[in-house]
Amino acid sequence: MRYADLPSQAPGDPVPVLLLHGFGTNFEMNWSAAGWPRALDTAGRRVIGPDLRGHGGSDKPTDSGLYLPEHFVADVLALLDLLEVERVDVVGYSMGSRIAWELALTAPDRVRRTVLGGFGPANALAGLDTAEPGTGDTPFDHVYRTVVGLPGNDAAALAACVRGQASRPFKEEPRPTGGPMLLVAGARDTVAEGAAGLAERCGGAFVEVPGRDHANAVSSRVFKQAVAEFLEG
What we know:
alpha/beta, seven-stranded mixed sheet, 7 strands, globular
């Protein structure tokens, strides 16, 4: 696993922030290019940002069974153990939010606060032809076509990731019962449909990013400000 570990230049030792990127991107594309490490450093936070399996500079297996949520969670926990980090605030985007949810659900003692960006309760892969992802007209087909040709991406690994994710659709029961939760979604994000309702049912907060869709909400100042305020409590 390739990862970034960026210590804050500010004094003190607050809980680190774990950033989990979306499908077909990596830490650099999803977070660094959007200015998140700079924003979190300003807030005095250490940033930990892995390239999830199948993405970026990490290994890219082509067995769909290796892309079940529990494997991603195991990777993240192994990374935290390696870095000797006991507890984090986790911020996910899209697929990274699904993993953040699973992390908070299965290892609540390792998560203080959870942010789910670009994520809702609806099955984002509904209607997708998993044998040939990207050939249809579902919202995720459009996402797939956008990312599959990005530099460094492996089409076979991404297709395997799709199949693994599709075999284990998201269920909002049981829900994480640990720390507070914030959901953030662009007003035009069809992938994150129902995010506000999910936040309400989880007893969490919801912030809508005006004028943004699934592709560009993550770079919004509104998103960064909402997360900074939420993580400060």
